[in-house]
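Q: Please design a sequence for this.
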């Protein structure tokens, strides 16, 4: 067993607890948080692929049925987990770095929530135990509520409360679905459950099995922010600090793919599963870009665009082929990077102008050219303009739809990408190119260098993955081949 695998969860979890306990020592807290955040992307890169069995309980063979059972909570670490956890760790480091340099006195509880959320979503991605996944899903939901509530933005408490109320509905339904799976299979290990289903030990057409799909699927919609939860999900992005919104969005993407991959392994034999995933994904794509067109608050605009981009991820998973799922997971990775870049970049504009209404902005290109150019490239990447990373993943999704015999879905994906381009260009022109309003004061306000540094790092990755997509797509494809 690789002992570094559990450290990916233990390190941020212990850091969260220690920071919360000793936050009154401001300078020491800053140094400790910086060092731990710096370690987060290093640990998955240094780890070897493999499995980790908690308690040392290795799988056992049933001599009667010749079926392998997994009595321990199991963490599975492959290239997919490595690339996503490393990217999540890098983003956490950048967010913590921005926060530490922005405030002279840091908030222990806020840093606690950032590290706690990172630990929770990492565990969701690693675990092969569906109940263990649910426990950290609940922890993640509480961390997200706390990050929004701790923000100094108007009505953040109200938005956090709404998200928590909806969570009190979505989470129990998911838990009930997991309970039905436990009753049917006698296990909460995903590999064991999938083996029981595919070996015919569970009747895939039974009402209980179908009900478990419906309940867990509903919880997945809540976790992902897909319709009907798209409005509340975009709302929590707009009511969080910009750097916090960047991390919240990455939490959403990773939890989305963690849960849907588990569902895919269990329910892929049911045609209705792929139909549901594709339907709600297309709905998210259309609603996301449509609602973004109507926004004058650029934070809310990015939030709705992010929801639309989630639809592209679900589309790849729902099509169900190796190439399509690879495209969807590559899109997920791009979504984390590009949307974080947009949130941090527009957060820099908020910092410089104290304004979020696009109608009251203008002429920013002359005052903040670095931020303007990086935001322009990020917006083009989200819209799928070559040769950036967003183009590569969306091109793969269009090709996957054609290969599956759905040219209409390919056309829809292209139309949504064009609409995304229109939304961003309209917003960009309003904020950066049109004449500056007389009442807008810009001369004495600067953009923090840490934000520009974070944007530069993310932008390099966007360009690198656009020019050399095989860096990640080959490994992701091998992972997908292993679960099909």
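A: Design:
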């Amino acid at each position: 067993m690789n002992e570094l695998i559990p450290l990916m969860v233990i390190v941020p979890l212990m850091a969260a607890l220690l920071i919360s306990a000793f936050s009154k020592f401001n300078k020491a807290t800053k140094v400790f948080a910086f060092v731990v955040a710096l370690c987060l992307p290093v640990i998955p890169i240094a780890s070897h692929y493999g499995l980790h069995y908690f308690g040392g309980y290795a799988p056992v063979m049933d001599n009667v049925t010749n079926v392998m059972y997994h009595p321990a909570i199991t963490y599975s670490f492959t290239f997919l987990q490595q690339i996503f956890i490393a990217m999540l760790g890098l983003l956490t480091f950048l967010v913590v770095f921005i926060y530490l340099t922005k405030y002279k006195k840091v908030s222990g509880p806020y840093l606690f929530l950032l590290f706690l959320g990172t630990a929770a979503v990492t565990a969701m991605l690693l675990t092969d135990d569906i109940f263990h996944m649910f426990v950290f899903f609940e922890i993640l939901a509480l961390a997200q509520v706390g990050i929004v509530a701790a923000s100094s933005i108007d009505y953040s408490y109200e938005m956090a409360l709404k998200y928590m109320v909806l969570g009190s509905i979505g989470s129990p339904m998911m838990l009930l679905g997991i309970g039905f799976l436990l009753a049917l299979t006698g296990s909460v290990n995903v590999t064991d459950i999938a083996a029981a289903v595919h070996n015919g030990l569970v009747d895939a057409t039974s009402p209980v099995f179908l009900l478990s799909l419906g309940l867990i699927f509903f919880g997945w919609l809540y976790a992902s922010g897909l319709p009907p939860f798209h409005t509340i999900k975009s709302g929590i992005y707009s009511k969080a600090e910009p750097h916090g919104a960047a991390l919240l969005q990455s939490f959403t993407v990773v939890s989305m793919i963690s849960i849907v991959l588990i569902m895919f392994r269990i329910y892929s034999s049911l045609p209705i599963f792929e139909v549901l995933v594709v339907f709600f994904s297309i709905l998210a794509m259309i609603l996301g870009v449509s609602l973004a067109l109507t926004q004058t608050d650029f934070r809310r605009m990015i939030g709705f665009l992010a929801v639309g981009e989630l639809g592209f991820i679900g589309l790849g998973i729902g099509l169900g082929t190796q190439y399509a799922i690879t495209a969807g997971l590559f899109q997920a990775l791009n979504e984390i990077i590009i949307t974080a870049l947009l949130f941090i970049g527009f957060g820099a504009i908020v910092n410089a102008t104290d304004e979020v209404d696009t109608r009251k902005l203008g002429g920013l290109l002359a005052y903040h050219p670095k931020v303007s150019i990086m935001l322009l490239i990020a917006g083009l990447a989200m819209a799928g303009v070559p040769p950036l990373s967003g183009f590569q993943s969306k091109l793969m999704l269009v090709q996957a739809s054609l290969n599956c015999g759905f040219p209409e879905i390919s056309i829809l994906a292209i139309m949504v990408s064009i609409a995304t381009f229109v939304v961003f260009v309209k917003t960009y022109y309003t904020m950066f190119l049109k004449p500056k309003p007389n009442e807008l004061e810009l001369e004495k306000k600067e953009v923090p260098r840490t934000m520009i540094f974070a944007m530069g790092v993310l932008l390099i990755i966007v360009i690198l993955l656009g020019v050399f997509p095989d860096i990640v797509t080959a490994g992701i494809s091998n992972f997908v081949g292993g679960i099909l």
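Q: Thanks. Anything notable?
A: The beta strands are 50-53, 60-62, 67-69, 74-77. The chain has a mean pLDDT of 88.
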